[in-house]
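[Q] Does anyone have a clean structure-token version of this?
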Amino acid sequence: MELRHLRYFVTVAEELHFSRAAARLNIGQPPLSMQIRALEDELGVTLFERSQRRVFLTTAGRTFLVRARQILADADAARQEVQQIAGVDAGELRIAFTTSAPMTNLMKRVLTSYRQQYPRVTLTLSESPSERQLDALGERTLDIGLLRRADDATAVAGLSFETLVDEALVVVMHQGHTLAGRASISMADLAGEAFIMHPPDVGTAVDGKIRKMCERAGFTPRVVQEARESTTIVALAASGLGVAVLPAAVRCIQIEGARFMALTEADAHTPLLLAKRRDDASPLVQAFVAMCHEVAGVQAKTGDALTRAATPPDR
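[A] Here you go.
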């Protein structure tokens, strides 16, 4: 039994509604229901009576709720005490992220959890191209970088990198496109298409990988439009101006006419990396990295991560 199981249980008990509880916890309803079932199985009791309309606490559930709240309160008091001792209860943490990172479930959940656990820490967030983040880390004007790099370009003196999530790449096109009826698509199928990409000065590693994939498929992408923001690129592709290849997190962009399709290439994925200085012993940085590990672990267990093995569904 983990503390997160108790938090999940208490939230459902307070809401008596799985959808509202999932929204409060910033997780999906199916993973939440699965975790509550796992908790009941571990305890060997039924905590909730479920009907089509209502959710009720059982007698065992009401008793367990009192204990769970006390355990969480004790854990929170202990956390605050050790944070004060370790120096992570206040300060500033400077984080930069590449354009698609905020669309990932992982980043959204990490930021929510970090703010909840360290409310006195000031998070200074900025959007920045991956290469500029590396410079800022080296100049010590940045503490954490959330970025994407080429598969063979993760060695930088003084910096450490780790993969938080390995995200699938998807093709974005207008839903009326002649290729839009397929379940998936290969890069070779896009040889005659007009492409929408980021301008070169944005410094995104994704576009570099896309160009290499196109070259391997026997063509050079014909770029008809450039845009700095992924949201703009999706909107232009949805209007029929061309096709785009982006990290699967862009599926959260709700734009009429957009069709998202899986790529068949085995290397059609892009890792979201966490970069920091190797010699950075800041408790604030260490706490953020630990939070990333925790959230990434939960997503891996519940299957709630966009990995390269996942086939992104169409909207």
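[Q] Thanks! Anything notable?
[A] The first helix runs from residue 3 to 15.
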